[in-house]
Amino acid sequence: MKNIDQRRIALAIVTFICTIVCAQVPGDYISTHFKKGDTLQYTYKLSIKAEDPTTRKPIEIPYGVYDNLSFSPASSYYLLNENRKSYESTFTLTVREVTPYTYTMRLQVQQSPYGDNINGNPELMTPKFTTGLLKEEGILITFNKNMSNYMPTNSNETINDLVDYLYTHREENELIKKFTDVVPKEEFKQEFTQSEDVNSFISLIINLSAPGLGMLPEIYGHKYTPEVVHYKEIPSDKKGSHPLKIEETTSFNSEGWLNEYNRTVTFKQPRSLIVSHESIIRQVKQ
Question: Across the strands, what pairs with 245?
Answer without folding.
Answer: 233, 266
